[in-house]
Amino acid sequence: MNAPLSNELLPPFEIRTLPPAMLAALSERFGARCTTAAAVCEQHGRDESPYPVTPPQAVVFCESTDEVAAVVALANQHGVPVIPFGIGSSLEGHLLAVQGGVSIDLSRMTRVVRLNPEDLTVTVEAGVTREQLNREIRDQGLFFPIDPGANATLGGMAATRASGTNAVRYGTMRENTLGLTVVTASGEVIRTGTRARKSAAGYDLTRLFVGSEGTLGVMTEITLKLYPLPEAVSAAICHFPDIAAAVRATIQIIQMGVPIARCELLDLNAVRAVNHQSKLSMREAPLLLMEFHGSEAGVKEQAETVQAITGEMGGEDFQWASTPEERTKLWTARHKAYFAGMQINPGCRTVTTDTCVPISRLAEIIEASVREADESKLPYYIVGHVGDGNFHLAYLVKEGDVEQRALAERLSLQMVQRAIALEGTCTGEHGIGLHKMGFLVDEAGAGAVEAMRTIKRALDPKNIMNPGKIFTL
Amino acid sequence: MNAPLSNELLPPFEIRTLPPAMLAALSERFGARCTTAAAVCEQHGRDESPYPVTPPQAVVFCESTDEVAAVVALANQHGVPVIPFGIGSSLEGHLLAVQGGVSIDLSRMTRVVRLNPEDLTVTVEAGVTREQLNREIRDQGLFFPIDPGANATLGGMAATRASGTNAVRYGTMRENTLGLTVVTASGEVIRTGTRARKSAAGYDLTRLFVGSEGTLGVMTEITLKLYPLPEAVSAAICHFPDIAAAVRATIQIIQMGVPIARCELLDLNAVRAVNHQSKLSMREAPLLLMEFHGSEAGVKEQAETVQAITGEMGGEDFQWASTPEERTKLWTARHKAYFAGMQINPGCRTVTTDTCVPISRLAEIIEASVREADESKLPYYIVGHVGDGNFHLAYLVKEGDVEQRALAERLSLQMVQRAIALEGTCTGEHGIGLHKMGFLVDEAGAGAVEAMRTIKRALDPKNIMNPGKIFTL
């Protein structure tokens, strides 16, 4: 079993130089939108992972696909790495310039290019965030369900195959991306997919780029599926005597085929942190935070079924949050859990696991992981998209504390070993990045990873697209 | 716009020889399960496309992944093409041995390897058919929804990214394949995906192989998502004064977000053919054949909404088929439409279109296509998975009638041009095969097709995996 890559274990990446000729060409074309200012480079050389800042040599703020293509064409000519950057909310070191190069900041590409409410599709530029998108489509009676905790960009979400709380019903970026505009490693612009709901036309390039973490191309536009806002929405909290009971209830809900829209676990520690940060007063016990979408009657029916199940599993004080305000408050609190966890432990960084297992094995892996976490004495909390079999155990380690970090990484490794043994995955939604490269080999096998490498070498022969992520060549 | 490849237009494929040493090695390992008998080779050199039989030089009946790997390893050593074969129900020439080689018949690989009802997953060998699978899981209260008309193998369905009548609710093979066992071009065995519902672990090899039509590897085992049998199922027929009204009703149903499970269009000609073949007495008018899945109350509610919509759109005599027997009879008739069309026009082969467009453009493309078809005087019928924006206009051309065939191909080309202009695809579910290679370039663009070629060359450097399909190298 391959250990995760912590700072000390990062392979000895070779930093490539940024030739003055390329910098001059970038400056000529982009003016002040190309910068080598240390503060800007440092801001682009970090994410929410516990790795130290690893800045690029320059940052270019692009405003169109053509501009991205121009940067990549220059990078290709000079053999310089490019790293696409959205808002920097990655958790696995995706954005670190481990081989130097240019960060392509897409955060100014915020146009909703085309909304087709009648087809339930939208095309957005890569820098549009999920919250912006939902604001812009709400008055059409539509929404886009995928919601990682952060207000990430759609480009970043596509790049990491993100999901979040609604995936149990609506799927992930994999299921909801219909097509892409991609700048390839040569600086050429290609389009994948169409606005049709399905297609059997050739290789599924859309899904090859989704989840490729910037290593095969830069996605500049994304065509997404949208959904009609449900006629009725209802959210509920249910407390449980212990995590195991909450997980058993979840398993039952899924096995019964209840089309639940969200089914989130918070352990005692997460509840405490969220209460603290969001000034809520939820009872301090493990809970499931659930949401139901459908017609009035459908929501009522789902909720009754779920209430019966949670009751049987020892669930207590099933509480409704039916007004939009109450719901928003609860879900905002849930989405802030990551920062709440850090706030309650000042000076800490998180080492977050992201395992996802077949639903019947969920209780088993969570119970074992909780036992280990308790024994470790490290502060931790658990939040989970448990309806998918996916959960995050976040260890809080003091910044710079090598021993704590090593302990957290060891526990993370053990959990991944367990998930793989249970036929699950080391990452449900965060991606591989730098951190999980070792795990990928354990999970997929050397042959499958070699197939990935072969594709990478073929599509990016100079290894300039976010090199050093997912695998080393 | 690139014309479709009809017989005369097939590129001049070079037939590679099958070296005696390879045949000897195959015979030694497989005995009578390796054959060069003309009848068997001919049976493996055809499908349901209108192309003439193009037999492989040998057929090997494999019974395990290891056996497939052994055949591919030999083929790799000798530079000989291999063509995976299930039941031969392809519509686009996928199975024709245009460069010679060995047909790998997987139809004896019919084991359900592992059923995990508690996780709603199953792993099957590639030769299991959709009907076999559903028979074997029914007593667990489960079903697998994807149903192309033919009783195809799951391997073939994965290879062509098949869908069928239930895709509007349950998705296609793209959404329902969790993982694969694949024999790569070197004869190595790799596994992709896991049994977890989602994963962000590296490139999505599963979806790269799904829809790759045997050109990147041979899928030997497939892990699928299953669904609980709905508590209630109800089917209904509704007739319409014309196709346009039926399509407008469909558009409305989808835009309203009704979770309809099936929404199938049959035109007057299809209704006649199906009545004739299945001894039914449906009124001879365009109709929608619909199915609703859910709880008792949910099905009732969906049906009421749909009944109101169809009423507004001029739908007449909304008829229920609530008993399982009636439903089975209707859907069996629907699935036989392809053969019914041929039976009513003896001595004919079909040239079938497969365009899929954004739902709002569906009425437009069907109306124009019907006008053209009527003017052509060729016999034709239309069946459509219209809830997805996908429909098939099948022209019936006399076998060997070059003029009729050319006319049908020209009309097919015009329809594809229209679909692409409407941001749709040339193939919703049948794949590219030989027939739609020209269309693929028009749809995806030369750059995207070149990216596909680059992947193909990298993963199959000797071009032995079903060569000459999807694109030429």
**pLDDT average of chain A, as an integer?**
94
Strand order of the largest sheet of chain A: 15-12-14-13-17-18-16
Q: Would you tell me the structural class of the helices and strands of chain A?
A: alpha+beta
Estimated helix fraction of chain A: 25-40%
Gross geometry of chain A = globular
Query: Largest sheet of chain A, described in full?
Result: 7 strands, antiparallel
How far apart, in Å, are the first and last alpha carbons of chain A? 19 Å
Rg of chain A over CA atoms, rounded to whole Å, is 22 Å
Low-confidence stretches of chain A: none
Number of strands of chain A: 18
Biggest chain contact: A-B, 91 and 91 residues
- State the assembly state of the protein chains: homodimer
Count every helix of chain A, treating DSSP H or I runs of 4 or more residues as helices.
17
Strand content of chain A: 15-25%
Verbal overview:
The structure is a homodimer of 473-residue chains. Chain A has 473 residues and is of the alpha+beta class. Chain A has 17 helices and 18 strands. In chain A, the strands form 4 sheets. In chain A, strands 15-12-14-13-17-18-16 form a 7-stranded antiparallel sheet, with helices on both faces. In chain A, helix 9 crosses helix 11. The radius of gyration of chain A is 22 Å and the shape is globular. The two termini of chain A are 19 Å apart. The relative contact order of chain A is 0.13. The interface between A and B is large, with 91 and 91 residues.
Tags for this model:
473 residues, alpha+beta, 7-stranded antiparallel beta sheet, 17 helices, 18 strands
